[in-house]
Amino acid sequence: MKNIRNFCIIAHIDHGKSTLSDRLLEVTGTIEEREMKEQLLDTMDLERERGITIKLQPVQMQYNYSDTEYTLNLIDTPGHVDFAYEVSRSLAAVESAVLLVDASQGVQAQTLTNLYFALEQDLEIIPVLNKIDLPNADVEKVKKEIVHILGCSADDILSVSGKTGEGVKELIGEIIEKTPEPSGDVEKITRALIFDSVYDSYKGVLAYVRVVDGTINKRDDIHMLMTKGQSSIVELGHLRPKYEKCDDLHAGDIGYIATGFKSVSECKVGDTITLKQNAKTENYDEIGPLPGYQEVQPMVYASFYPLDGSDYNLMRDALEKLKLNDGAFRFEPESNKALGRGFRCGFLGLLHLEIIQARLDREFDMNPTITTPSVVYKVHKKDVDESIEIFSPTELPDLSQVDFIEEPYVKLEIIAPSEHLGRVMELMGNTRAEYRTTDYIDETRVQLVFDAPLMDVIVDFHDQLKSVSSGYASMNYEIIGYRTSDLVKLDILVAGDVVEAFARIVPRDGAHGVGKVTVDKLKEVLPRQNFTVAIQAAIGSKVIARSTISAFRKDVTAGLYGGDITRKRKLLEKQKKGKKRMAQSGKVDIPPETFLKVLRK
Predict the structure, then answer these.
(1) Is residue 222 a contact partner of residue 233, using CB atoms and an 8 Å limit?
(2) Would you state the pLDDT for residue 280?
(3) DSSP 373
(4) Which residues of 319-358 are buried (b: 16+ CB within 10 A; e: fewer)?
(5) Which of 57, 162, 199, 208 could bridge to 324 as Cys pair (CB 3.0-4.6 Å)?
(6) What is the pLDDT of residues 241-277, one digit of tens each?
């Protein structure tokens, strides 16, 4: 244990975590040069295409420092605000955190959030400046920002380049020197924290674990403290970064255990593993679950409905497998008169929803109908003391029965260059956010704090913020509670039929604007038909916005070669009556990709 160092890398999105991880793997000789590729630890195609880390990824490295062989366990974490829960999971498994800051962008909103996560876990913080090779890097200015937020000395901040490898060896030395040895005792009762899990069709659930006390042998039987599940170990080992079998995992080690479990419900992320024989002893009640883990609560809910009702069971199996690899994803069955049987799914944000949708398409060849994302509202009915929680607009009771509705609010932190302050404030003026404070990090950067409705933040606020600040502003939010709002249900009708998937709950005074934007967007993205299609936005029976998709027009007069004008009129009237009949019985098929396109303003 003396020669083990467990650490993770935390940073804002796109500050170079995965690139720095690649250099660490190269310098330590964990990966041979011929096997090296960019973003090596990002194993999903989606991660490579988007250039972001979605899943945390552990890897073990061996390194000789001052004539001593050290084992370094690194966990590479995501940076996007939607995946903050992944960061909290990694922090529970390590002793130190490398706080990475881009020398060209400086401290961002997620940098601060991840730093606070690490300080709460009482981790050793190693501040590092990355991308010093860029021509627009301002090393001295960003060092001052880090000193301001950390209270450390400027000499404590290392300067590295994940791209060129400059300073990486010095960083490894700093990690070995500053990271505390893992606490824990090999002689104590075995306890290991599950900080992530993935599904393998041959080995069952693979639990990524940090062994805190005791030893786990490949011949042991394991017992879960929370779920009470028991199983024989199929295989255990380390990630280098491929699975490498071994006989034992000792206190202080990070590795994987192939549990043999076939269901995620038996092997939950955050559970504590002990040995089966310990569960039978008198001291079983004294084996407490390991602390430091946060239960993840979905922020956004949307429903997935298979296009073909017979695919319901296939979709349930697909969602089960996605849930196994994603501790924050939730789903449960629901049914809808218009859409049939489907699933209500919980997500951390809109990016998380897009990732799940893309994985369903790629890995399982499924394109479900997706309802408009919503948050959890609390509805207080008249003459009833308690409130009911609704997860979608279709569950909202008739407004004549409702006393008032509460919606979740967040504390929204924005860090932006002061030159963009006016445009950011203008953007905030278009939302229902309430201004709180302004703090200047330095002469050129400002931190703004607002209280805002979660619904205003999750849909496309992040994209709009990047747009008004030329990409320089960053944001972070955390739930602060529920507040009363004047809300109504907005229905969208296509060709006279209410499309349940487009229904949403909106503020009464902004309903007209939202309805107009939605019908105009639908006019752009819905395919034209052989008949005129009316798209309407309505509150109850009152239509508040309308748009019309004109029909395809076949030239029925093309075959005429002369004669009276009445012949032409007769053919056109006949065509007009035919289109009218078609419109009365015509049904518009809405492609699955339309639902997410409409969300993007």
Answers:
(1) yes
(2) 67
(3) P
(4) beebbbbbbbbbbeebebeebeebbbbbbbbbbbbbbbbe
(5) 199
(6) 788 888 888 888 888 888 888 766 677 777 788 888 7
Residue 243's alpha-carbon distances to 200, 234, 235, 382, in angstroms, are 12, 13, 10, 59
SS3 string, 553-573, reads CCCCCCCCCCCCHHHHHHHHH
Q: Which two tokens stand for residue 217?
A: 């042998």
Gap between the Cα atoms of 56 and 168, Å rounded: 21
Give backbone dihedrals phi and psi of 511, rounded to 5 degrees, phi first.
Answer: -65, -40
pLDDT reported for residue 450: 93
Q: Cα–Cα distance between 127 and 564 in angstroms, integer?
A: 87
Write out residues in the chain with pLDDT < 50, as ranges: 37, 39-43, 47-48
Q: How far apart are CA 58 and CA 48, in angstroms?
A: 17
Residue 163: φ, ψ to 5°:
-80, -50
Give the C-alpha separation, 209 to 197, whole Å.
Answer: 9
The token pair at 234 is 């199929």
How would DSSP label each residue in 301-370? EEEEE-SSGGGHHHHHHHHHHHHHH-TT-EEEEEEETTTEEEEEEEESSHHHHHHHHHHHHHHH----EE
**How much is the pLDDT for 356?**
86
Non-local (6+) Cβ contacts of 201 within 8 A are none
Q: Could you read off the pLDDT of 451-466 as tens digits, one per residue?
A: 999 888 877 787 788 7
Residue 536's closest CA among 588, 476, 478?
588
Of 104, 39, 106, 107, residue with least CA distance to 78: 39
Q: Alpha-carbon torsion 247, 251, 254, 260, what sign?
A: positive
CA distances from 321 to 80, 222, 302, 314 (A): 23, 22, 18, 11
Amino acid at 119: L
CA atoms of 503 and 515, how far apart (whole Å): 10
CA dihedral angle for residue 380, residue 382, residue 386, residue 391, rounded to 10 degrees: -30
Residue 469: DSSP 8-state? T
How many C-beta atoms lie closer than 10 Å to residue 317's C-beta?
10
Confidence (pLDDT) at 51? 52
Task: Indicate left, alpha or beta for 471 from its phi (over 0: left) and psi (-120 to 50: alpha).
Answer: left
Report the half-sphere exposure of 469 (CA within 13 A, side-chain side): 26
Tally: H helices and E strands in the chain: 15, 31
> Per DSSP, what are the bridge partners of residue 448?
414, 438
pLDDT value, residue 328: 73
Q: Which residues contact 341 (CB under 8 A, 6 or more apart)?
A: 305, 306, 309, 312, 333, 334, 335
Looking at residue 409, what is its pLDDT? Answer: 92
Set out the domains of the chain in order of their start, with CATH numbers. Answer: 4-178 (3.40.50.300), 191-286 (2.40.30.10), 300-370 (3.30.70.870), 377-485 (3.30.70.240), 488-599 (3.30.70.2570)
**Locate tokens 């991660």: which residue?**
47
* Residue 303, burial from CB neighbour count under 10 angstroms (0-12, 13-18, 19+): buried
Give residue 451's pLDDT.
Answer: 93
